[in-house]
Design a protein that fits this description.
Blueprint lengths: L2 E11 L2 E11 L12 E7 L2 E2 L6 E2 L2 E5 L8 E7 L18 H12 L3 E6 L21 H15 L5 E11 L1 H9 L5 H4 L7 E5 L4 H4 L11 E6 L8 H9 L7 E6 L14 E3 L12 E3 L3 H19 L1
Parallel strand pairs: 1-3, 7-8, 7-9, 9-10, 10-11, 11-12
Antiparallel strand pairs: 1-2, 3-6, 4-5, 6-8, 13-14
């Protein structure tokens, strides 16, 4: 019988601490782990443009400074998935999900600054997972422009090594990264400074694998997925990897056995979702759930990849 418990981590937002509830599942009660030191963050304001000549959105994000004594540090832009940045447990509060706080800890501990743009709240959304593609104002194409604005903001920060910027994203955010790295897009190709690396957790590769225009990433990319992912099946990413073979900016795909979508979400139980339009087989839904072993291996591969490309 599984017993549900909670571990609490802290996020200090401009000097204030926000509690982050991380749900965990264990076979029996265990001794409480020593509390982790709080992470400090600042809310920063950006500007995003929906489309050329379109309306402007007052975009904001959360800024985490990396550990270490260097004056300028390599920096990561982290793009959340369709569920947004915040926990759905207490919708009245701004609580980072366990997945996002775990990533912020891993990257800042490794010496990286991290910027988490919030693409949804400024657009009046908490989550878009249950919206159809036609309903999504915050499409991956629009969010590609959020990445452009984030890059411009980083260029103004004194503690950013702007020559060593990378990206990390999940699901819809990972698909956004594919869009933001595609040199076939003029706005991507004309950037004066390009990210040096990107890590995409379980993106949708289908639009790029089947496109007549060859996909050409601006920098090396690592895609991390579960073999059993039925929400964003890996076959299209396998095809995309093959199409970039031999390129200096190719794609490396890592597939983990017995692993599904959201595998890196700490403590997330395996479950089937029937509320995701256009995903999975009709009437069968999609599977989501954490896998601690795959998550640990993915983090190791991610950190090694970033170290090789950004340091």
């Amino acid at each position: 019988m599984n017993i549900r418990g909670k571990t609490i981590a802290s996020l200090c937002l401009t000097g204030l601490c926000v509690q982050l509830a991380a749900t965990s599942f264990a076979a029996a009660p265990a001794a409480k782990p020593a509390p982790l030191p709080p992470l400090r963050t600042d809310r920063v304001f950006l500007t995003s443009v929906e489309s050329p000549g379109g309306k402007a959105t007052a975009l904001f994000g959360f800024w985490f400074k990396g550990k270490g004594k260097a004056d300028k540090k390599p920096t990561i832009i982290a793009m959340h998935g369709c569920g947004g940045l915040y926990s759905s447990v207490n919708k009245e509060k701004i609580e980072f999900t366990p997945r996002h706080i775990a990533m912020a800890r891993a990257l800042t501990d490794a010496g990286y600054n991290v910027l988490f743009p919030d693409s949804f709240t400024p657009r009046g959304r908490r989550s878009i997972c249950q919206e159809s593609q036609a309903q999504r104002e915050a499409s991956s194409a629009n969010r590609r422009l959020d990445v452009q604005i984030a890059l411009r903001w980083l260029a103004t920060q004194e503690d950013v090594d702007y020559a060593h910027v990378g990206m990390v994203g999940w699901s819809h955010g990972a698909t956004t990264i594919l869009a933001a790295m595609n040199l076939a897009q003029t706005d991507v190709a004309v950037r004066k400074v390009q990210p040096k690396a990107a890590v995409a957790f379980y993106p949708t590769c289908t639009p790029y694998a089947g496109s007549r225009t060859p996909y050409k990433p601006a920098a090396p990319m690592l895609i991390l997925m579960g073999e059993n992912d039925d929400w964003t099946p890996p076959e299209a990413c396998e095809s995309l990897e093959k199409k970039t073979e031999g390129s200096d900016t190719g794609i490396t795909l890592r597939l983990y056995p017995d692993t599904y979508h959201d595998f890196d979400a700490p403590g997330l139980p395996m479950h089937v979702r029937m509320d995701i339009p256009g995903a999975g087989k009709r009437g069968e839904g999609v599977t989501s759930g954490g896998n601690a072993d795959s998550r640990a291996e993915a983090y190791r591969e991610m950190l090694k990849f970033l170290k090789d490309k950004l340091e």
